Amino acid sequence: MPWRETRDPYGIWVSEVMLQQTQVATMTPYYDRWMGRFPTFQALAAADEQEVLAHWQGLGYYRRARNLLLGARKICVTGVPKTREEWLAVPGVGRYTAGALSSITLGLAEPVVDGNVERVYARMAKDPAVGRELHENAWKWAAKHMDPQRPGDWNQSLMELGATICKPLNPNCPLCPVKQWCCAFQTGRVSELPTKPIKQKAIQIRQHVWVPEHNGLLGVRQIPGGQWWEGMWEFPRALEEEELREAVGAGWPLALGTIRFSVTRHRITMLASLIRCEEPAEGLKWLPIEELTSLPMPAPQRRVIKLALPILGTS
Fold first, then answer.
1. How many CB atoms lie within 10 A of CB 135?
2. CB-count exposure of residue 253 (10 Å: 0-12, 13-18, 19+)
3. Which tens digit of pLDDT belongs to each residue from 83-103?
4. Mean pLDDT of 171-186
5. Does residue 215 contact residue 278 with C-beta atoms inside 8 Å?
6. Which of 168, 180, 182, 214 is the most buried (most CB within 10 A)?
């Protein structure tokens, strides 16, 4: 983990943001590519948002990339934070990230709680709480047991314990260095904790997406604010075909296939089609397919391109 080999606050900040909702194995190549292009606060602050989104493409939760850009610009004006409170003032930095950065880069005795620490706590304390109550209990426990001499190493060790030993399934209790103090282990209740919350029902959504083509160019539009992947680019998309027909103004579409994906607890089924346009519809940006590769597009939209390629290649 290259971010473990540095005390550079920028590199550690980037790693902490990237690791939110993303596993280490998935995140590492993105981190290396990002640091190669944006190696400092200044390099990132000077970048264009579209290029930043393009380098983030594939990691998901794109608000994280925008907050990194905004945060870098703020830090270039106000200076690198020297306290937890100053880190909390950086866009996108919350309670966990501020604690991690304060302990690792500044040596301050600030606790951190992520999913791994929460699980370690639930088993160590045999706490049956769920949700917000469990989370707050874990924060109090982490603060109480903080090592003030090596807070950064302590926090990272605690998270590593949860990630590598105290795993959600099949925890390796025999190798755990703290099993003698673990109430769940001592009472044979490890598999019961943390208590599983009631699973929310998935929300099913059905969408149509059209790939408009005119003289070898494809029409895309920028996703408006307030929608998933705002600021990125997509082919026209709607819940009903009639909405797309009004927007694109073309004939009947040629079916390409079906794409299924999830966003939080939403389960989306997207019906993809190709549409030939006699005239380029207004409101769309018309580009050759080669240029779409450098445009930041959500992963489902890139899957649409793959479905269209065999047909476009024979046009």
1. 16
2. buried
3. 999 999 999 999 999 999 999
4. 96
5. no
6. 182
3-state secondary structure of 307: helix
Helix (H, G, I), strand (E, B) or coil at 131: helix
- The single-letter DSSP state of residue 253 is P
Number of other residues whose CB lies within 10 A of the CB of residue 128: 13
CB 1 within 8 A of CB 24: yes
Long-range Cβ contacts of 148-153 (<8 Å, 24+ apart): 148/109, 151/103, 151/107, 151/108, 151/109, 151/110, 152/103, 152/104, 152/105, 152/107
**234 among known catalytic residues:** no
Radius of gyration of the chain (CA): 24
Percentages helix, strand, coil for the chain (3-state, rounded to 5) are: 50, 15, 35
Catalytic residue, candidates 5, 16, 118, 246: 16
As given in the structure block, the two tokens for residue 219 are: 């029409």
Q: How many residues are recorded in the chain? A: 315
Taking the model in full, what pTM does it have? Answer: 0.78
DSSP 177: T
Quote the pLDDT of residue 241: 84
Average pLDDT, the chain: 92
**CA separation for the pair 281, 296 (Å, rounded):** 21
The pair of structure tokens assigned to 25 is 């194995």
**Which residues, in sequence order, are bridge partners of residue 221?**
234
Q: Is the pLDDT of residue 247 over 80?
A: no
Report phi then psi at 222, rounded to 5: -85, 135
DSSP 200: P
Q: How confident is the model at residue 5 (pLDDT cuts 50, 70, 90)?
A: confident
Report whether pLDDT(279) > 90: no
Q: Which of 169, 163, 168, 159 is nearest to 138 (CA)?
A: 159
- State both tokens at 30: 């993105």
Q: Classify 219 as helix, strand or coil.
A: strand
3-state SS class at 164 = helix
CA distance linking residue 90 with residue 73, whole number of Å:
10
